[in-house]
Structures are given as C-alpha cells and as structure tokens.
Give the backbone structure.
Amino acid sequence: MAAWVHDEGTAQGNRARQEDDYGVFKLPPELEAGDLLLVLADGMGGEQGGARASALTIRDFIETYDTVPAVTIPERLERTLAYVNQRMALEVASDPERLEGMGCTLLAVVLAEEGLYWISVGDSPLWLWRRGRLHRLNQDHAYRSILAAQVSAGEISAADAARHPSRNALVSAVTGGEVELVDLPRQSYPLRCGDQILLASDGLLTLSESKIAALLASARGREPCRRLLAAVEALRSPHQDNMTVLWAEAANRPPESHRRWVGRGVPLLALLLALLAVGGAWWWLARGDAETVASAFAPP
C-alpha cells in the first residue's frame, strides 16, 4: 500500500453561490481497490439544482465505491457512476418542476500502488505534472473540444471557434439520463517519482496550463491549492467561476536536493575513491621498486 499526501481548496469566485463539491477518502486496504479516492463535481441547473447535484454526486460516489461488487478498479468506478446517475434521476423525479435540468460534471481518481485510475464525465480537467510540464489526461466533454477538431480539419477558423456562443456547453454530464460520453481507461496510468496529480473544476482554466505548471513547480508540495486559487483571484476576472482544486503526490518522494545528490554526488564520490585507490597502488608499487633497486646496489 502506497502512502500519498494531498491538498484541497475551493473558492466561490464571483458567482452568487458555490456549486462545486468534492471529497477525499482514504480507502480501506482490505478492499484492495486502491489507496486514495478523490472526487470532484461541478454543478449545473440554476439556483435550485447546481449545488444540490454536486453534493448528491459526491456523497453517493464515496459511499458507494467501497460497497459495489466489482473485480477491477475500472469496473468499480463504472458501476459506481451508474449508481450515482440512477440516484440523480430519482432526485430530479422527486421535484421535476424545480429540478429539471439539474446535473453536474464528475471526476473521480483512484491512486493505487500500480498507478492512477480515473473516470470522468464533463469538462473538469485531470492533469499530470511531470518534470515541470502539465499534461491533461482526461477527455474534455465540452463543445469546445468539437470546435477544436473542426479547426484542425480546417472547417472553421480559430477566431470563430473562440467566440462561438456554445463553446463551453457540456456535451456529457451526470443528469440522471443517458450519459453520452464517459472517459474510463481500463488500465492504470503508471506514475513516476516526483509526479503530481491535479483535479480541478473548469474555474481554474482562468490560468493557462503553463502558469499552473509553474505554480506547482514553485510550491514543491507546500499548499499548492492555496497558491493556485490565490493566482486566479489575483487576476480579478469579473466573471470568475467557482473553483475547486484537489492535489496529490506520493509521500515517499525524496527532497529535491537529495535527488540531485543521489544522482550526481555518489558517482563523484566513487570517482574520488577510485582515484585515491589507484594513487595508493602506484605509491606502493613505486616504493616497492625503489626498495628493490636499492637492495641490488647495496654493498654485500
């Protein structure tokens, strides 16, 4: 069982209410279904629905993950999503007049000894920070991804895509109906020493990926979420969305200075010891030859 350190943070931005929700759950080792579960939801559905949808999804996902019957972690994630979506349907049906259109994104990550697993619906990004660079791992289920493909195919211009009125509309979400798109890799994503994992609601996209990467590099595990949220708030965007960020990395990561010493100091030390050994051997041989020569010319 691997040990993980994690950090969490949330901010309302300039919205009238907070519609994000999240949960972090240390998994029981006897379950053999990972070490740490991180779940994030970004609600939609107006004044009545958004916060209710995200809170319901987080609660049901965490309560269900370790009880649903499954053989593999991806199967467990898939069955948990199906249950959460059914619960959403029941919730909407309990008050259809007020809750019609209620739903949320879902991003659930399981950290395990063999690597990283995830399931995602919607546009909440999952990133891997590795050696100073940020890599998005999950699919973006927003219309902007379709527009990007059209730009690549030469069907529309980048300028038209950037100002398209539906660019941020979700093409898949947890609403209680059919889930159009689900991102669920069937194999674990292997992690390396020093990797950092970041989950976020799309409110963090006020920052560029290069800025996020630089902040994670400078934080070195010291309150990374607080630093990210502070950087967004410093931009003072008048339309700033809710923001939620979850961060994790392996707890046994050596300090940066120690990694440099291990990588460079040991070979240098070995070289110095080798030089000393060779020098000592030459001194001993030279001394032995001198004694032999001296004894040869010594008077009988």
